[in-house]
Amino acid sequence: xxxxxxxxxxxxxxxxxxxxxxxxxxxxxxxxxxxxxxxxxxxxxxxxxxxxxxxxxxxxxxxxxxxxxxxxxxxxxxxxxxxxxxxxxxxxxxxxxxxxxxxxxxxxxxxxxxxxxxxxxxxxxxxxxxxxxxxxxxxxxxxxxxxxxxxxxxxxxxxxxxxxxxxxxxxxxxxxxxxxxxxxxxxxxxxxxxxxxxxxxxxxxxxxxxxxxxxxxxxxxxxxxxxxxxxxxxxxxxxxxxxxxxxxxxxxxxxxxxxxxxxxxxxxxxxxxxxxxxxxxxxxxxxxxxxxxxxxxxxxxxxxxxxxxxxxxxxxxxxxxxxxxxxxxxxxxxxxxxxxxxxxxxxxxxxxxxxxxxxxxxxxxxxxxxxxxxxxxxxxxxxxxxxxxxxxxxxxxxxxxxxx
Length: 404
Prior knowledge:
Elements: E1 2-7, H1 16-27, E2 31-38, H2 41-52, E3 56-61, H3 64-74, H4 81-85, H5 89-101, E4 106-110, H6 111-119, E5 132-137, H7 140-150, H8 154-175, E6 180-183, H9 186-196, E7 202-203, E8 224-228, H10 234-254, E9 259-263, H11 269-277, E10 281-285, H12 290-296, E11 299-302, H13 312-319, E12 324-326, H14 328-331, H15 336-339, E13 344-345, H16 349-361, H17 363-380, H18 383-402
Helix pairs in contact: 1-18, 7-8, 8-9, 10-16, 13-17
Protein backbone atom coordinates (compact mmCIF):
# COMPACT_ATOMS: atom_id res chain seq x y z
CA UNK A 1 0.00 0.00 0.00
CA UNK A 2 0.99 3.62 -0.53
CA UNK A 3 0.44 5.27 2.87
CA UNK A 4 0.72 8.85 4.12
CA UNK A 5 1.36 9.15 7.86
CA UNK A 6 0.71 12.59 9.39
CA UNK A 7 2.20 12.71 12.89
CA UNK A 8 2.44 15.96 14.89
CA UNK A 9 5.81 15.04 16.44
CA UNK A 10 8.78 13.19 15.01
CA UNK A 11 8.37 9.46 15.76
CA UNK A 12 11.17 8.32 18.07
CA UNK A 13 11.73 5.54 20.60
CA UNK A 14 9.97 7.77 23.14
CA UNK A 15 6.93 8.15 20.89
CA UNK A 16 6.41 4.44 20.80
CA UNK A 17 3.17 4.10 18.86
CA UNK A 18 3.91 5.92 15.58
CA UNK A 19 7.55 4.81 15.69
CA UNK A 20 6.65 1.13 15.69
CA UNK A 21 3.59 1.27 13.46
CA UNK A 22 5.60 2.98 10.71
CA UNK A 23 8.61 0.74 11.20
CA UNK A 24 6.64 -2.51 11.08
CA UNK A 25 4.54 -1.38 8.12
CA UNK A 26 7.71 -0.47 6.21
CA UNK A 27 9.19 -3.89 7.01
CA UNK A 28 6.13 -5.49 5.42
CA UNK A 29 6.79 -3.75 2.12
CA UNK A 30 4.35 -0.85 2.32
CA UNK A 31 5.64 2.46 0.96
CA UNK A 32 5.27 5.21 3.52
CA UNK A 33 5.50 8.97 3.45
CA UNK A 34 5.94 10.55 6.88
CA UNK A 35 4.73 14.13 7.34
CA UNK A 36 5.86 15.47 10.70
CA UNK A 37 7.29 18.32 12.77
CA UNK A 38 10.62 18.48 14.54
CA UNK A 39 11.63 20.60 17.53
CA UNK A 40 15.09 19.45 18.67
CA UNK A 41 18.39 18.56 17.02
CA UNK A 42 17.88 14.92 18.03
CA UNK A 43 14.52 14.87 16.28
CA UNK A 44 16.03 16.44 13.17
CA UNK A 45 18.68 13.71 13.13
CA UNK A 46 15.93 11.10 13.50
CA UNK A 47 14.45 12.27 10.21
CA UNK A 48 17.60 11.07 8.46
CA UNK A 49 17.16 7.66 10.08
CA UNK A 50 13.63 7.43 8.72
CA UNK A 51 14.93 8.24 5.25
CA UNK A 52 17.57 5.53 5.62
CA UNK A 53 14.75 3.05 6.33
CA UNK A 54 13.17 3.91 2.98
CA UNK A 55 10.49 6.25 4.33
CA UNK A 56 9.85 9.47 2.41
CA UNK A 57 9.90 12.42 4.83
CA UNK A 58 8.08 15.76 4.70
CA UNK A 59 9.15 17.85 7.69
CA UNK A 60 9.00 21.36 9.08
CA UNK A 61 10.38 22.86 12.26
CA UNK A 62 8.01 23.68 15.10
CA UNK A 63 9.55 26.38 17.28
CA UNK A 64 8.44 27.27 20.78
CA UNK A 65 7.48 30.73 19.53
CA UNK A 66 5.28 29.23 16.83
CA UNK A 67 3.51 26.91 19.32
CA UNK A 68 2.77 29.79 21.69
CA UNK A 69 1.49 31.89 18.80
CA UNK A 70 -0.76 29.03 17.69
CA UNK A 71 -2.21 28.64 21.19
CA UNK A 72 -2.84 32.39 21.59
CA UNK A 73 -4.52 32.50 18.18
CA UNK A 74 -6.88 29.73 19.31
CA UNK A 75 -8.04 31.52 22.48
CA UNK A 76 -10.95 33.47 20.87
CA UNK A 77 -12.12 30.41 18.91
CA UNK A 78 -14.20 27.50 20.15
CA UNK A 79 -11.40 24.98 19.53
CA UNK A 80 -9.08 23.71 22.29
CA UNK A 81 -5.67 25.38 22.38
CA UNK A 82 -3.90 22.08 21.82
CA UNK A 83 -5.80 21.55 18.55
CA UNK A 84 -3.86 24.49 17.11
CA UNK A 85 -0.61 23.87 19.00
CA UNK A 86 1.11 22.03 16.14
CA UNK A 87 -0.17 24.11 13.23
CA UNK A 88 2.51 24.72 10.60
CA UNK A 89 1.60 26.37 7.29
CA UNK A 90 4.87 25.06 5.88
CA UNK A 91 4.05 21.44 6.69
CA UNK A 92 0.48 21.87 5.44
CA UNK A 93 1.81 23.11 2.12
CA UNK A 94 4.23 20.18 1.85
CA UNK A 95 1.43 17.69 2.53
CA UNK A 96 -0.95 19.28 0.04
CA UNK A 97 1.70 19.38 -2.67
CA UNK A 98 2.50 15.72 -2.07
CA UNK A 99 -1.15 14.71 -2.32
CA UNK A 100 -1.55 16.70 -5.52
CA UNK A 101 1.40 14.93 -7.13
CA UNK A 102 1.09 11.40 -5.76
CA UNK A 103 -1.73 8.91 -5.20
CA UNK A 104 -2.14 7.31 -1.77
CA UNK A 105 -4.20 4.29 -0.80
CA UNK A 106 -4.86 5.69 2.69
CA UNK A 107 -3.97 8.62 4.91
CA UNK A 108 -3.22 7.92 8.58
CA UNK A 109 -3.27 10.94 10.90
CA UNK A 110 -2.34 10.75 14.56
CA UNK A 111 -3.66 12.51 17.66
CA UNK A 112 -5.93 15.45 18.23
CA UNK A 113 -2.96 17.74 17.49
CA UNK A 114 -2.48 16.25 14.04
CA UNK A 115 -6.12 16.03 13.02
CA UNK A 116 -6.33 19.57 11.63
CA UNK A 117 -3.91 18.70 8.84
CA UNK A 118 -6.30 16.06 7.54
CA UNK A 119 -9.33 18.30 7.98
CA UNK A 120 -7.79 21.05 5.87
CA UNK A 121 -6.64 18.87 2.98
CA UNK A 122 -8.09 19.55 -0.43
CA UNK A 123 -9.07 16.44 -2.35
CA UNK A 124 -7.00 15.75 -5.48
CA UNK A 125 -8.94 16.53 -8.62
CA UNK A 126 -7.72 13.60 -10.68
CA UNK A 127 -8.09 10.77 -8.19
CA UNK A 128 -10.63 9.39 -5.76
CA UNK A 129 -9.89 10.83 -2.31
CA UNK A 130 -8.14 8.18 -0.21
CA UNK A 131 -9.76 7.19 3.08
CA UNK A 132 -8.49 9.03 6.16
CA UNK A 133 -7.89 7.04 9.33
CA UNK A 134 -7.68 9.14 12.50
CA UNK A 135 -5.66 7.57 15.30
CA UNK A 136 -6.93 9.52 18.29
CA UNK A 137 -4.60 7.36 20.46
CA UNK A 138 -6.34 8.42 23.71
CA UNK A 139 -9.63 10.12 24.45
CA UNK A 140 -8.24 13.48 25.60
CA UNK A 141 -11.55 14.52 27.18
CA UNK A 142 -11.42 11.44 29.39
CA UNK A 143 -7.85 12.33 30.35
CA UNK A 144 -8.73 15.96 31.18
CA UNK A 145 -11.73 14.93 33.26
CA UNK A 146 -9.35 12.98 35.48
CA UNK A 147 -6.65 15.65 35.44
CA UNK A 148 -9.12 18.28 36.68
CA UNK A 149 -9.30 16.38 39.98
CA UNK A 150 -5.57 16.04 40.52
CA UNK A 151 -3.63 18.87 38.89
CA UNK A 152 -2.14 21.39 41.32
CA UNK A 153 -1.28 25.01 40.73
CA UNK A 154 -3.70 27.75 39.78
CA UNK A 155 -2.49 28.08 36.18
CA UNK A 156 -2.66 24.31 35.53
CA UNK A 157 -6.18 24.10 36.93
CA UNK A 158 -7.35 27.07 34.87
CA UNK A 159 -5.91 25.66 31.64
CA UNK A 160 -7.45 22.24 32.34
CA UNK A 161 -10.87 23.76 32.92
CA UNK A 162 -10.60 25.92 29.80
CA UNK A 163 -9.52 23.00 27.64
CA UNK A 164 -11.95 20.43 29.02
CA UNK A 165 -15.14 21.97 27.65
CA UNK A 166 -13.57 22.84 24.31
CA UNK A 167 -11.93 19.45 23.94
CA UNK A 168 -15.16 17.62 24.69
CA UNK A 169 -16.98 19.37 21.83
CA UNK A 170 -13.99 19.20 19.49
CA UNK A 171 -13.40 15.47 19.92
CA UNK A 172 -17.09 14.81 19.36
CA UNK A 173 -16.89 16.69 16.04
CA UNK A 174 -13.65 15.02 14.98
CA UNK A 175 -14.90 11.49 15.49
CA UNK A 176 -17.62 12.05 12.89
CA UNK A 177 -15.33 13.36 10.16
CA UNK A 178 -13.01 10.46 9.36
CA UNK A 179 -13.43 7.15 7.58
CA UNK A 180 -12.11 5.16 10.55
CA UNK A 181 -11.22 6.15 14.10
CA UNK A 182 -8.69 4.34 16.30
CA UNK A 183 -7.84 4.37 20.03
CA UNK A 184 -5.44 2.33 22.14
CA UNK A 185 -7.86 0.82 24.66
CA UNK A 186 -11.44 -0.23 25.26
CA UNK A 187 -11.79 2.42 27.99
CA UNK A 188 -10.85 5.16 25.53
CA UNK A 189 -13.18 3.65 22.91
CA UNK A 190 -16.14 3.83 25.28
CA UNK A 191 -15.28 7.39 26.33
CA UNK A 192 -14.94 8.64 22.75
CA UNK A 193 -18.07 6.79 21.63
CA UNK A 194 -20.07 8.40 24.43
CA UNK A 195 -18.94 11.85 23.27
CA UNK A 196 -19.56 11.36 19.58
CA UNK A 197 -22.31 8.74 19.34
CA UNK A 198 -20.05 6.97 16.85
CA UNK A 199 -20.26 3.24 17.44
CA UNK A 200 -17.57 2.21 14.94
CA UNK A 201 -14.32 2.98 16.75
CA UNK A 202 -11.47 0.48 16.50
CA UNK A 203 -9.23 -0.49 19.40
CA UNK A 204 -5.62 -0.82 18.22
CA UNK A 205 -3.51 -1.69 21.30
CA UNK A 206 0.11 -0.68 21.65
CA UNK A 207 2.69 -3.40 21.42
CA UNK A 208 6.21 -3.66 22.73
CA UNK A 209 9.36 -4.38 20.75
CA UNK A 210 10.26 -7.75 22.23
CA UNK A 211 13.60 -7.89 20.41
CA UNK A 212 14.66 -4.54 21.88
CA UNK A 213 13.20 -4.77 25.39
CA UNK A 214 14.71 -8.00 26.72
CA UNK A 215 15.69 -9.23 30.21
CA UNK A 216 19.25 -8.62 31.48
CA UNK A 217 19.71 -10.10 34.96
CA UNK A 218 23.45 -9.35 35.06
CA UNK A 219 22.88 -5.58 35.49
CA UNK A 220 20.26 -5.75 38.25
CA UNK A 221 20.95 -3.83 41.47
CA UNK A 222 19.46 -4.66 44.86
CA UNK A 223 16.81 -2.37 46.38
CA UNK A 224 16.49 -0.25 43.24
CA UNK A 225 13.08 1.07 42.25
CA UNK A 226 12.41 2.73 38.88
CA UNK A 227 9.60 4.94 37.62
CA UNK A 228 9.88 5.68 33.90
CA UNK A 229 8.00 7.92 31.51
CA UNK A 230 8.08 11.26 29.74
CA UNK A 231 8.38 13.65 32.65
CA UNK A 232 6.91 16.61 30.80
CA UNK A 233 3.57 14.76 30.85
CA UNK A 234 1.40 16.03 33.69
CA UNK A 235 0.03 12.59 34.68
CA UNK A 236 3.60 11.28 35.12
CA UNK A 237 4.62 14.34 37.16
CA UNK A 238 1.62 13.87 39.46
CA UNK A 239 2.48 10.18 39.87
CA UNK A 240 6.15 10.96 40.58
CA UNK A 241 5.21 13.45 43.31
CA UNK A 242 2.82 10.91 44.82
CA UNK A 243 5.57 8.29 44.76
CA UNK A 244 8.20 10.57 46.32
CA UNK A 245 5.96 12.22 48.93
CA UNK A 246 3.63 9.45 50.05
CA UNK A 247 4.92 6.01 49.04
CA UNK A 248 8.70 6.08 49.32
CA UNK A 249 8.79 7.36 52.94
CA UNK A 250 6.90 4.18 53.90
CA UNK A 251 9.38 2.05 51.92
CA UNK A 252 12.36 3.83 53.47
CA UNK A 253 11.15 3.04 57.00
CA UNK A 254 12.00 -0.60 56.31
CA UNK A 255 14.55 -0.16 53.52
CA UNK A 256 16.36 3.09 54.32
CA UNK A 257 18.97 2.52 51.61
CA UNK A 258 16.53 1.77 48.79
CA UNK A 259 17.21 3.86 45.69
CA UNK A 260 14.58 5.46 43.47
CA UNK A 261 15.29 6.22 39.81
CA UNK A 262 13.00 8.70 38.05
CA UNK A 263 13.80 8.03 34.39
CA UNK A 264 12.33 10.26 31.71
CA UNK A 265 12.89 13.34 29.61
CA UNK A 266 12.27 16.94 30.69
CA UNK A 267 11.56 16.50 34.41
CA UNK A 268 10.11 19.68 35.95
CA UNK A 269 11.86 21.68 38.64
CA UNK A 270 9.88 20.07 41.48
CA UNK A 271 11.14 16.61 40.52
CA UNK A 272 14.72 17.79 39.97
CA UNK A 273 14.67 19.49 43.37
CA UNK A 274 13.54 16.27 45.04
CA UNK A 275 16.53 14.50 43.53
CA UNK A 276 18.90 17.24 44.66
CA UNK A 277 17.53 17.07 48.21
CA UNK A 278 17.84 13.29 48.69
CA UNK A 279 20.77 11.22 47.44
CA UNK A 280 18.53 8.16 47.28
CA UNK A 281 16.52 9.76 44.45
CA UNK A 282 18.21 9.85 41.05
CA UNK A 283 16.50 11.95 38.37
CA UNK A 284 18.04 10.95 35.06
CA UNK A 285 16.42 13.31 32.57
CA UNK A 286 16.48 12.09 28.98
CA UNK A 287 18.20 8.74 28.47
CA UNK A 288 19.79 7.48 25.28
CA UNK A 289 18.68 3.98 26.27
CA UNK A 290 15.83 3.54 28.77
CA UNK A 291 16.63 -0.15 29.06
CA UNK A 292 19.69 0.64 31.19
CA UNK A 293 17.46 2.05 33.93
CA UNK A 294 15.04 -0.88 33.66
CA UNK A 295 17.81 -3.48 33.76
CA UNK A 296 19.16 -1.93 36.97
CA UNK A 297 15.83 -2.14 38.76
CA UNK A 298 14.62 -4.67 41.30
CA UNK A 299 11.08 -3.40 40.74
CA UNK A 300 9.38 -1.01 38.32
CA UNK A 301 6.50 1.09 39.66
CA UNK A 302 3.61 2.90 37.96
CA UNK A 303 1.59 4.68 40.67
CA UNK A 304 -0.57 6.64 38.24
CA UNK A 305 -3.50 8.47 39.78
CA UNK A 306 -4.99 9.24 36.38
CA UNK A 307 -4.23 8.61 32.74
CA UNK A 308 -5.54 7.30 29.45
CA UNK A 309 -4.57 4.64 26.96
CA UNK A 310 -2.06 1.84 27.41
CA UNK A 311 0.91 2.60 29.66
CA UNK A 312 4.02 1.74 27.66
CA UNK A 313 6.12 2.03 30.79
CA UNK A 314 4.37 -1.08 32.13
CA UNK A 315 4.75 -3.10 28.92
CA UNK A 316 8.44 -2.20 28.58
CA UNK A 317 9.23 -3.16 32.18
CA UNK A 318 7.41 -6.49 31.81
CA UNK A 319 9.28 -7.18 28.58
CA UNK A 320 12.59 -6.51 30.35
CA UNK A 321 11.70 -9.03 33.03
CA UNK A 322 11.33 -6.40 35.76
CA UNK A 323 8.69 -7.05 38.46
CA UNK A 324 5.94 -4.45 38.23
CA UNK A 325 3.85 -2.79 40.95
CA UNK A 326 1.18 -0.54 39.48
CA UNK A 327 -2.03 1.24 40.31
CA UNK A 328 -5.36 0.10 38.92
CA UNK A 329 -5.35 3.19 36.73
CA UNK A 330 -1.99 2.27 35.17
CA UNK A 331 -3.31 -1.19 34.28
CA UNK A 332 -6.86 -0.18 33.36
CA UNK A 333 -6.35 -0.58 29.60
CA UNK A 334 -4.83 -4.07 29.91
CA UNK A 335 -6.75 -7.37 30.23
CA UNK A 336 -6.60 -7.81 34.00
CA UNK A 337 -7.59 -11.48 33.98
CA UNK A 338 -4.52 -12.33 31.89
CA UNK A 339 -2.31 -9.84 33.70
CA UNK A 340 -3.20 -10.71 37.29
CA UNK A 341 -0.34 -13.16 37.81
CA UNK A 342 2.22 -10.92 36.05
CA UNK A 343 2.02 -7.71 38.12
CA UNK A 344 1.03 -6.52 41.59
CA UNK A 345 -1.77 -3.96 41.93
CA UNK A 346 -2.08 -1.38 44.72
CA UNK A 347 -4.00 1.87 45.00
CA UNK A 348 -3.18 3.40 48.40
CA UNK A 349 0.21 4.61 49.66
CA UNK A 350 0.41 1.93 52.37
CA UNK A 351 -0.61 -0.95 50.12
CA UNK A 352 1.64 0.30 47.33
CA UNK A 353 4.64 0.49 49.68
CA UNK A 354 3.84 -2.97 51.04
CA UNK A 355 3.74 -4.38 47.51
CA UNK A 356 7.14 -2.85 46.71
CA UNK A 357 8.58 -4.26 49.94
CA UNK A 358 7.14 -7.70 49.24
CA UNK A 359 9.00 -7.77 45.93
CA UNK A 360 12.24 -6.51 47.47
CA UNK A 361 12.01 -9.04 50.32
CA UNK A 362 10.98 -12.16 48.39
CA UNK A 363 13.31 -13.61 45.75
CA UNK A 364 10.79 -16.30 44.75
CA UNK A 365 8.16 -13.62 44.08
CA UNK A 366 10.64 -11.61 42.01
CA UNK A 367 11.47 -14.65 39.88
CA UNK A 368 7.79 -15.44 39.37
CA UNK A 369 6.94 -11.88 38.30
CA UNK A 370 9.92 -11.68 35.95
CA UNK A 371 8.90 -14.85 34.11
CA UNK A 372 5.15 -14.18 34.15
CA UNK A 373 5.59 -10.58 32.99
CA UNK A 374 7.68 -11.54 29.98
CA UNK A 375 5.29 -14.35 29.07
CA UNK A 376 2.34 -11.96 29.25
CA UNK A 377 3.75 -9.40 26.78
CA UNK A 378 4.93 -12.13 24.44
CA UNK A 379 1.40 -13.50 24.31
CA UNK A 380 -0.55 -10.23 24.17
CA UNK A 381 1.53 -7.27 22.99
CA UNK A 382 3.73 -8.00 20.01
CA UNK A 383 3.60 -5.16 17.47
CA UNK A 384 2.88 -7.69 14.71
CA UNK A 385 -0.56 -8.26 16.24
CA UNK A 386 -1.40 -4.56 16.12
CA UNK A 387 -0.05 -4.10 12.60
CA UNK A 388 -2.05 -7.10 11.35
CA UNK A 389 -5.18 -5.41 12.67
CA UNK A 390 -4.16 -2.05 11.22
CA UNK A 391 -3.68 -3.53 7.75
CA UNK A 392 -7.18 -5.01 7.97
CA UNK A 393 -8.56 -1.58 8.91
CA UNK A 394 -6.81 0.04 5.94
CA UNK A 395 -8.14 -2.58 3.52
CA UNK A 396 -11.70 -2.23 4.81
CA UNK A 397 -11.55 1.58 4.58
CA UNK A 398 -10.13 1.44 1.04
CA UNK A 399 -12.82 -0.99 -0.08
CA UNK A 400 -15.61 1.09 1.45
CA UNK A 401 -14.26 4.26 -0.14
CA UNK A 402 -14.10 2.58 -3.56
CA UNK A 403 -17.82 1.76 -3.36
CA UNK A 404 -18.82 5.40 -2.87
